[in-house]
């Protein structure tokens, strides 16, 4: 984690630090017939000055739960005084495919 001593005002345009985001969900929809949903969370970041969303990362898939506490953490740069849009999409994973169109958006 960055400290105040890590900030060099001569070599930085915007003060920034690293943040760590932990994700959990509660009361997800149960989309599976014979078991509970198998959720994964996909984090998207919106580009500065654009409306385009870029995939930043994914959590692990947790089988058969509607209340997952994900282990994977997202570590990203936080820029002070700047608006940073994040979007978290939760999918029910039904196949081993990494293609999100093969899974149901919860």
From TrEMBL:
Any one Pfam family match given in the protein's UniProt record, by short name: C2
Alphabetical list of CDD domains matching this protein: C2A_Copine
TM ranges: none
Gene3D superfamilies (alphabetical): C2 domain
Domain C2 intervals: 1-106
Superkingdom of the organism of origin: Eukaryota
Entry-linked PROSITE patterns: C2 (PS50004)
Protein name per UniProt: C2 domain-containing protein
């Amino acid at each position: 984690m960055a400290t105040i001593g890590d900030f060099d005002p001569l070599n930085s345009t915007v003060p920034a630090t690293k943040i760590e985001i932990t994700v959990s969900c509660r009361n997800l929809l149960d989309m599976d017939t014979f078991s509970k949903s198998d959720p994964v969370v996909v984090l998207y970041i919106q580009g500065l000055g654009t409306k385009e969303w870029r995939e930043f990362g994914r959590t692990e898939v947790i089988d058969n739960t509607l209340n997952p506490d994900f282990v994977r953490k997202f570590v990203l740069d936080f820029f002070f005084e700047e608006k940073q849009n994040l979007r978290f999409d939760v999918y029910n994973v039904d196949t081993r495919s990494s293609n999100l169109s093969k899974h149901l958006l919860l």
